[in-house]
Amino acid sequence: PHGSNPKIGLTRYVYVADTDAEALRIGEAALRYHRANLLKLTTDAGLTLTSPVVPPDNLAQAVREGWAAAGSPATVREQIAEMAQQVDINYFVFAPMMADLPLEWGLRTMDIFRDEIIPTFGENEAIRMTA
To answer: What is the DSSP code (8-state) at residue 129?
Structure first.
């Protein structure tokens, strides 16, 4: 156990849906939209951003590289648990990347995260979840 004091936390994009395929499909569009806007803002400001500040435009790659967790509740739980082991975190900040997605999708994502992911980690005081 990590104790109750914050040690290190992660903020990651999270795309959660009923299935892995749905989360990847919807999340891919949101990630690309976010990435394009981030690059446009920096270009308009005369700046050049590259990795590690700019996520990849492919969600599966973003998941592999640790930028995001995406999939069904079971998949996202596994991904967050793996991140927690690799980085030795004791809190996780859920960052649903809405971009231009409908509000209903974001609300559904938050509901699934609240109901099906947080309780799993809530039983383990080593990781605090924040949405």
So the answer is: E
What does the alpha-carbon distance between residue 20 and residue 18 come to, in Å, rounded to a whole number?
7
Tokens of 71: 């999939």
Give the pTM.
0.78
The C-alpha angle with vertex 17 and arms to 116 and 79, in degrees rounded to 5, equals 65
- Return phi, psi of residue 49, to 5°: -110, 140
Q: Encode 93-108 in three state secondary structure.
A: EEEECCCCCCHHHHHH
CA–CA separation, 83 and 108 (whole Å): 23
Compute CA 125 distance to the chain's CA centroid, rounded to the nearest angstrom: 20
Place of tokens 């605090």: 128
Q: What is the pLDDT of residues 66-99, one digit of tens each?
A: 889 999 999 999 998 888 888 777 777 878 777 7
Cα 10 from Cα 95, distance rounded (Å): 10
